[in-house]
Amino acid sequence: MSFKKIKKYLANPPVLGALIPGKLLVLNIAAFEKSLRALCNQENKAGKEIYLYYLSRTLIRSSMNLSTYH
């Protein structure tokens, strides 16, 4: 990626969109050893993916000792 593209991207960061009632919601979850992440998105009327909510959390030491489910 060129410097100009990076500069343009950083000057215009992506913005979270508004919920479109009646459209399917997609929840993406990522669990890592020391953090959790979640992203809620849906497609707009033009078929482009829009992001509605993003959550990122670093786990504290006591949370990392909890058992996991497979």
Characterise this structure.
- It is a single chain.
- It contains one helix and three strands.
- With 70 residues, the chain is mostly beta strands.
- It has one domain: Ubiquitin-like (UB roll) (Roll), CATH 3.10.20.
- Strand 1 and strand 2 form a beta hairpin.
- The longest helix has 9 residues.
- The chain starts with a helix and ends in a 12-residue tail after the last strand.
β-strand percent reads: 35-45%
State the shape.
Answer: flat
Question: So, CATH architecture?
Answer: Roll
Question: What would you report as the Rg, rounded to the nearest angstrom?
Answer: 17 Å
Largest sheet: 3 strands, antiparallel
Q: What is the SS-derived class?
A: mainly beta
Mean pLDDT: 85
Output the CATH class name: Alpha Beta
Q: Regarding quaternary structure, how should these chains be classified?
A: single chain
Q: Supply the number of helical segments.
A: 1
- The helical percent reads 10-25%
| Physical arrangement of strands within the biggest beta sheet | 1-2-3
Unreliable stretches: none
